[in-house]
Amino acid sequence: MSGDMTIQHPDMSNTNTPTQPLPAPKGEAWDGICCGQHAVCEKELLMRAATEPVEYFDDEELDRFRGRSADSYNADEEDEFREVLYTTLTREVADWLRSLQLRGIELPEALRDEALMLAEDEATAVTDAG
């Protein structure tokens, strides 16, 4: 395969296509097609992590959870994530989730469904409005 590709998402083919082809990850063959099984394309995230600065949402304190598993948080730690989730604008929840992933921070399991629901509701609202 050549070293360049574009991202093609089966459900959102016109929203994830960059203006320039992205290079393939080193040592990895990639067909450039999102599998569609994740709320945020993991392949796209890997590419972004190498090229874009991480965006923070006034949540730098969460960096101390880098490398922790989603099921290892206690109630107080979950509340820290919950506070950021519910003070983030709905239209920015998906971006916040990407920020956490790029920073190596797993969202507590107790908040995953809520956060994904908020992100998907906003994506649906934007699609319906457009």
Poorly predicted runs: 1-30
Name the helix and strand elements from N-terminus to C-terminus, one letter apiece: EEHHHH
Q: What's the structural domain tally?
A: 2
Give the count of helical stretches. Answer: 4
Cα end-to-end separation: 36 Å
Count the strands?
2
Report mean pLDDT, rounded to a whole number: 75
Largest sheet: 2 strands, antiparallel
Sheet-strand content, in percent, reads: under 5%
Described by the principal axes of the CA atoms, the overall outline is globular
Radius of gyration: 16 Å
Strand order of the largest sheet: 1-2
What structural category characterises the helix and strand content?
Answer: mainly alpha
Description of the structure:
With 130 residues, the chain is mostly helical. The N and C termini lie far apart (36 Å). The protein contains four helices and two strands. It folds into two domains: 1-52, no CATH class; 60-129, no CATH class. 42% of the residues lie in helices and 3% in strands. Strands 1-2 form a two-stranded antiparallel sheet. The longest helix is centred in the last third of the chain and has 21 residues, at 109-129. It has helices at residues 42-51, 75-87, 93-102, 109-129, and strands at 4-5, 22-23. Residues 1-30 have low confidence and may be disordered.
